[in-house]
């Protein structure tokens, strides 16, 4: 029975390995040509691609790329933004840190099982010594330090901001400060600045550009869209770049992209994982059933940052999807935007009937919301608005109102359905 169960997994791993070996890698010289693939060769309809570009522009996108097996199949920039323009990764940059921690462990410069104070020294928190000594580098990677994320500024990295709330490993919370302190862990373990270590382990071998800089308490990575695509291609290729392995620690690499703890099954080592049975979101302790991006492939994993900095990788499809820019959704992790992009990609297939919901899409903001949600991109026609809870129960019903009071709704995930001109559009939002 065990052999039967293992066979499909072995076949999948074999197929992914074959795909990784057949990937195209662009030259590290950024002035050289990056090969392309014609969307028509993939059976994609050009007019449906334009629908995506319209949506992306409405969502304040600056740059967008899709790679197919390493080659550029779509690339588009908006406004004055160009292929050379630099932009911040926000929390998507956490995944670079995750890769670098794994590389440092491979080089025997650190161990993620060691307590964090091994590298930061005692007193880096406001906890008792016993409580602090229970926090490991692995806890920082998995958002399970147990430190209180409900402080006034959970980005604050001074020890007075880092107080005990729960034993490490017993509580998952999207807490930026313990993550940010991984920079100090890396620098003290490697003896190099974060920029120098990134240069030697990532930028030089892959042709990425960019730099880390400090904004308030946060370490933020800036680069261009193609550099994010290069990083996505490296991860799609299982840490191999054009035949050279940039990470030989396969155990760490696999753990990085798989469920890292039992609390939030959709979280690896600073990567968001799709296709899991449940997920959690920042600022909430609610465990939501299902996947955070149900329209994306189940094997998709993503780097996702505030205002829609997204590197979404689907090995089974051979796709790396990059989006940089601003967005009406100001949440720390804009899951809905990630899922909406995949809805459009799914609709590219000329063999599929046209998804009418994909044209002239509405937008919901803010998301998550506390008291009121706004509906944008509506035409002048009359419309009906219905809000359902996660199990499909009708909770609110309005007519011709684009500002909806949701203050009486309980916290959780809801679906808003807008009926206008014979078309139905559905969006998901989170009530905090």
N- to C-terminal separation?
45 Å
Structural class: alpha+beta
| Helix count, DSSP H or I runs of 4 or more residues | 12
Question: What is the radius of gyration computed over CA atoms, rounded to a whole number of angstroms?
Answer: 22 Å
Poorly predicted segments: 1-5, 355-359
Spatial arrangement of strands, main beta sheet: 2-1-13-12-11-8
Largest sheet: 6 strands, antiparallel
Number of strands: 20
Shape: globular
Helix content: 25-40%
* Average pLDDT, all residues: 90
Strand content: 15-25%
Structural notes for this entry:
The chain is α+β, with helices and mostly antiparallel strands. It is built from twelve helices and 20 strands. The protein has helices at 2-21, 46-58, 94-106, 117-120, 129-133, 137-142, 176-180, 182-190, 194-206, 225-236, 250-256, 335-346; strands at residues 61-68, 71-77, 87-88, 211-215, 218-223, 240-241, 244-245, 272-273, 278-279, 288-289, 301-305, 309-314, 319-325, 363-365, 372-376, 383-389, 394-399, 403-405, 412-420, 423-431. The strands form six sheets. The chain has a six-stranded antiparallel sheet with strand order 2-1-13-12-11-8, sandwiched between helices. A hairpin with a 2-residue loop joins strand 6 and strand 7.
């Amino acid at each position: 029975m065990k052999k039967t169960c293992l066979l499909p997994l072995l076949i999948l791993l074999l197929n992914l390995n074959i795909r990784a070996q057949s990937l195209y890698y662009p030259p590290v010289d950024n002035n050289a040509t990056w090969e392309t693939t014609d969307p028509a060769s993939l059976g994609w309809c050009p007019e449906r691609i334009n629908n995506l570009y319209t949506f992306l522009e409405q969502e304040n996108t600056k740059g967008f790329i899709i790679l197919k097996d390493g080659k550029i199949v779509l690339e588009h920039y908006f406004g004055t933004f160009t292929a050379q323009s630099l932009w911040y990764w926000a929390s998507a940059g956490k995944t670079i840190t995750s890769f670098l921690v794994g590389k440092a462990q491979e080089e025997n410069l650190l161990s993620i099982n060691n307590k964090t104070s091994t590298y930061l020294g005692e007193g880096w928190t406001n906890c008792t010594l016993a409580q602090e000594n229970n926090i490991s580098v692995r806890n920082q990677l998995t958002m399970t330090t147990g430190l209180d994320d409900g402080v006034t500024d959970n980005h604050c990295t001074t020890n007075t901001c880092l107080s005990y709330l729960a034993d490490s490993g017993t509580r998952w919370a999207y807490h930026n400060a313990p993550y940010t302190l991984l920079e100090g862990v890396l620098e003290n373990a490697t003896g190099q600045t974060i920029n120098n270590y990134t240069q030697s382990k990532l930028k030089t071998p892959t042709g990425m550009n960019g730099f880390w800089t400090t904004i308030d308490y946060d370490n933020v990575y800036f680069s261009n869209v193609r550099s994010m695509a290069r990083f996505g291609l490296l991860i799609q290729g299982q840490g191999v770049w054009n035949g050279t392995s940039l990470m030989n620690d396969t155990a760490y690499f696999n753990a990085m992209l798989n469920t890292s703890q039992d609390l939030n099954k959709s979280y690896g080592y600073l990567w968001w994982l799709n296709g899991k049975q449940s997920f959690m979101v920042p600022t909430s302790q609610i465990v939501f059933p299902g996947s955070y991006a149900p329209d994306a492939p189940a094997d998709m994993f993503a780097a996702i940052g505030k205002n829609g900095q997204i590197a979404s990788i689907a090995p089974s499809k051979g796709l790396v999807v990059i989006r940089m820019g601003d967005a009406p959704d100001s949440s720390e992790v804009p899951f809905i935007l990630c899922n909406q992009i995949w809805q459009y990609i799914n609709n590219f297939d000329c063999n599929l009937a046209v998804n009418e919901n994909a044209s002239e899409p509405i937008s919901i903001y803010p998301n998550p919301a506390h008291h009121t949600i706004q509906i944008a991109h509506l035409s002048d026609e009359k419309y009906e608005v219905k809000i359902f809870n996660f199990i499909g129960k009708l909770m609110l019903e309005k007519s011709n109102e684009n500002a909806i009071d949701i203050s009486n709704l309980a916290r959780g995930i809801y679906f808003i359905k807008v009926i206008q001109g014979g078309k139905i559009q559905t969006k998901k939002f989170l009530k905090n």
